[in-house]
Amino acid sequence: MVLQVQTSTYEAKTQEIAKQLLAATQENRSFFSSLRDQMRWDDKLLAWAMSNPGLRVQLFRFIDTLPALHSKSEIASHLQEYLGDESVELPAALKGMLNFANPDSMPGQVAATTVGTAVETLAHKYISGENIKQVIKTVERLRKEKMAFTIDLLGEAVITEAEAQSYLERYLELMQQLVEASKNWSAIPAIDEADGEAIPKVQVSVKLTAFYSQFDPLDAKGSEERVSDRIRILLRRAKELGAAVHFDMEQYAYKDITLSILKKLLLEEEFRQRTDIGITIQAYLRDSEQDTEDLISWLKQRGYPLTIRLVKGAYWDQETIKAAQKHWKQPVYNDKAATDANFETITQLLLENHQYVYSAIGSHNVRSHSRAIAIAESLNVPRRRFELQVLYGMGDKVAKALVDKGYRVRVYCPYGELLPGMAYLIRRLLENTANSSFLRQNLENRPIEELLAPPIVKEEKKSLTPDSDFLGAADTDYAEEEVRIKAAQAFQNVRQQLGKTYLPLINGEYVNPPEFVDSLNPSNFSEVVGKVGLISVEQAEQAMQAAKAAFPGWKKTPAKQRADILRKAGDLMGERRAELSVWIVLEVGKPVKEADGEVSEAIDFCRYYADEIERLDEGVNYDIPGETNHYIYQPRGIAVVISPWNFPLAIACGMTVAALVSGNCTLLKPAETSSVIAAKLTEILVDAGFPKGVFQYVPGKGSQVGAHLVNHPDTHVIAFTGSQEVGCRIYAEAAILKPGQKHMKRVIAEMGGKNAIIVDESADLDQAVVGIVQSAFGYSGQKCSAASRVIVLQPIYDAFVQRLVEATKSLNIGEAELPSTQVGPVIDANARDRIREYIEKGKAEAQLALELPAPEQGYFIGPVIFSEVSPNAVISQEEIFGPVLAVIRVKDFQEALAVANGTNYALTGGLYSRTPSHIQQAQTEFEVGNLYINRNITGAIVGRQPFGGFKLSGVGSKAGGPDYLLQFLEPRAVTENIQRQGFAPIEGAD
Which of 750, 761, 815, 879 is an active site residue? Predict the structure, then answer.
């Protein structure tokens, strides 16, 4: 079904204006026919990228890497690696240029110089200057052409508080210098005044998130306070200078909080009457029309107009991919025509409310501009309340044609060093070379009717979905205000239940144990989360006998029935998600977002293993004529699950439900410090319908109850996650045949790691620093997958350490339940004291780069970074399980891999690199079970990144993967001769 956007009264006028503008912008010759040898290299690169999708991807990846390359040899070798890829069909001129044997050779140097210069020339097309002096020259040229401007500061991502402060100071300096320069500018009525009102000559555009490095919608209040303080300084100074300030819009996750902060701030008495401020709306967002209506209502209440800049939106790929990865609804339209139609709808909405709002229509599409002009002229919108905008270097001809027709045009001018500006450059190049881009279609001389046709909104294209059939649970999106309110309510509800008693579950009954222990909140150890009953060895034996009695019936229960109980458990967890997150936060000190992710993982284990058992239950047929051969699986017997405190719901759930759904009776003995969460899991599994004796909750002392269950002759499978020391002991004890034991025990053990991330000289340091801070200090370094070593190549070592230290300094340390907290407590006093001992060892064998102070009232340890660490130092070799990071310097990539592989562990590892050969080499030679490239190394997702390692990191298959359930099953082959008296049914015979 195709919906034609209603051709309204404005359409005829739109067409008329657009044809005039197009005639002024179109050249008489085809763009592609002009590709002759005398074309400059920057033009050639763009033209090739348009005509060759494979080259486009690799070329833009190369351009993205360019800022990190510091010599011509590096540039030449990366050119060959990217453009020599098999997926790329090279034009003859480029093929010839890349045909050098050695990057150090003269032809290699020439290639590097040619392409480096071409990219720099390209950058100059879209970036208005590298410093304020150059920007002033650019804007003076624009003013001569009767164009106004707004200046945007490019640069590295703001990931430290020092950078956020610097961002503010650089804007204050920029405004000062521009205003100083403007004193010498003669007035240009077309852009400096309208309807008798002066328009500020100087305008700057800023990004809200850059004013606070830890900006996060979850911490809406804290983010608002920190950002607003800096914005007030900016707006006061702008007023003193007579400059205008416009707020850009960024990623969707920040949209609602950005609008909320600006609405509050601009109603403050000091700023309420200001009309020299602007806000941005992105038309590719599905909720942008509603946002515009809300803004207009708010402006009516405010009583003074502001500018609303309407743009299409610049992060489409990023938003689409993020939503697909998170299983969230797509925030953007999937179809460009839908965005264009929405753009026209909002244009009309803005202009029809011109008494409350100044409209700034930003586009490079002649139709979009013409539509705005047609509406503005039909409604007699005053000149002050309407302007058109283009990006520097993108719509030059359109802008000139608009100025010639007497409209006010403002050019959005990014400025900053060319190399940090590459991310911006690539967004512009993608836009310019996309098949759907108006600029490209115009260059290709498409028919005028096609270029100017009203957008036709087709049925929605299907959203991106992961390749796997398994669809995981969606994490909570804390960018939504109602979700944050629900989370706060869950904390209140759970707090009323603190201090309750939790009894063991044996044979379907909650029983009284001989001993109770208090489970404490590690953020505040005076708070008792719950009292947990610990069973005796006698009660452990009763549980074992109950499991033995229940096994024959459970074994015969059809796999489909077991799977359905498991799916029910997953659904119940989904219903109790907010509450379960709170128990995790309070009992083990995990910050809110990470606790929520853990609930998703537990739900995923239930659903994934339910699917898996149904797959395995089908078995495999190896039939031949006259004989059937069926390969099937049966449960092993009784499983003992010994779960850790660091993923008290997800890992306990994953190991337990894998054993249960495979048909085994299962005893769950959780870590003492997280037994309340295990009791909550127990409630869910009982409610889901696991029969008595099939699942039992048996908290107890590891040295007594744990040892009894491990050594029991009726135990068939032991699933353990914890320390290497305990794991190896279990493995050894399980190997001993006990009297009356008629089977060998199967041990599945995950035993930690000494995980390393390599950062090479081509890495994107913005990305690397953020990912490493998350990997090392998320949940205070207490994940099996956490990074405890970073191996950095010599050329970037010092710069990396400096940014890493600043980014870590900017983290918020505090109680896990506070929405601002990124680093919470460690689990208990023993852990805290052990980590402190390692920190003292580190001080003796390396340089202390950072040691952050920590609150006193809980088991807190501030993040610690050591630099110049030897690969063989104690802190480089032993698992610390806390927020302690060793940064090791190496001379080259070969040494980096050797150091990374130089421990007894092989669990997770990471690489930040934009060198294809390094990425390829790491994939084959980096000895880890889970390797992550150009992202953080924690947060494995079920069915996407099955988790587990080898060497002394563990034994057994990967959790959340296709072989995991096999460990809980015995395979059998059943063969039947189906011949009777020499005859057998033969398929296909009459």
Answer: 750
